[in-house]
Amino acid sequence: MEPRPRRLLPISKAAARLGVHPDTLRAWADRGLVAVIRTPTGYRRFEPQEIERVRAEMGLKGNGAAVPDESAG
Fold first, then answer.
1. Long-range pairs of 27-31 with CB within 8 A, sequence gap ≥ 24
2. How confident is the model at residue 6 (pLDDT cuts 50, 70, 90)?
3. Exposed end of the chain (fewer CB within 10 Å): N or C?
């Protein structure tokens, strides 16, 4: 049985789930605050579980605000 392909979110959808601008999520990923997967062409993709982790950590209800804790990992 073939493993199921991972369902990764593009930055626009991941940012929408967090209620932040894609530039904000991009900056967090570049700072290592959010785990990111790069495609062979360089696009950022996010695991849905990672976005939910960040959302829970920040206490977001989908309307954005705080920066994720840098000590999280």
1. 28/54, 28/67, 28/68, 31/70
2. confident
3. N
**In the numeric block, which tokens belong to residue 53?**
């982790």
Residue 66 inside a domain? The answer is no
46 SS3 class? strand
What pTM, to 2 d.p., does this model score? 0.74
All residues at 6 or more sequence positions from 11 whose CB lies less than 8 Å from its CB, including other chains:
22, 25, 26, 43, 44, 45, 46
CATH for 47: 1.10.1660.10
Q: Mapping DSSP to helix (H, G, I), strand (E, B) and coil, where does residue 58 land?
A: helix
**What is the extent of the structural domain holding 49?**
9-58
Q: Is the CA virtual torsion 28, 31, 52, 6 positive or negative?
A: positive
